[in-house]
Amino acid sequence: MKKNNADIQRFLDKVYEETSNSGETCDLITFNEFWDRKYGAAETNFDRRSFLNDISVLAASNQISYYQELTSYKRGIAPVVFFFKKIIRKICAFLFLPVVAAQNSVNMSFSRVALHIRNYVNREEILKMQFQKKEMELSGRIEIQQKEIIALNERIDELSGKLENLISGGDNK
């Protein structure tokens, strides 16, 4: 039997077929359902605050340094340990400096992309707030206009009553 066989779904299909032929029920889930339940991203909700915080941390610490402070906790031979650590650092510098520079370049590019995404998220939030503000302003204006319409309708009713009164020969007010 092969290890890590990719034909899991075929196996499950055969199990379904055999159980349906035998008249019993099979309550196994499909491999895709298992994968979606176990590793699907549907459970994770977008948290805007933590997203923006993560972007800020990424932007602040996207560069790494090849040079690290040398330490030694051996009191008597600390100068000798520092000397050998410096020699090892200088010998290995030609290997690590290009790798660190390339990694810093990749980190900077990724940081820029993340900042663009942050700006997009912020822009969407700002637009949403502007639309909500405009909606509240317009609903206030609609409410004021409805009150004016009610007042005008009352005035029309009052004037039509006076007109009827005038036509019927009532008061001349």
Write a structural description.
The structure is a single chain. The protein has 173 residues and is mainly α. The chain folds into two domains: 1-44, no CATH class; 48-140. The protein has four helices and no strands. It has helices spanning 8-22, 31-39, 48-60, 78-167. Helix 3 runs antiparallel to helix 4. The mean pLDDT is 81.
Keywords:
single chain, 173 residues, mainly alpha, 2 domains, 73% helix
Distance between the termini: 108 Å
User: How many distinct beta strands?
Assistant: 0
Quote the beta fraction.
under 5%
* Share in helix: over 70%
Give me the number of helical elements.
4
Multimerization status = single chain
Largest sheet: none
Order of helices and strands: HHHH
Mean pLDDT: 81
Element layout with pairings:
Elements: H1 8-22, H2 31-39, H3 48-60, H4 78-167
Short description:
Helix content is 73%, strand content 0%.
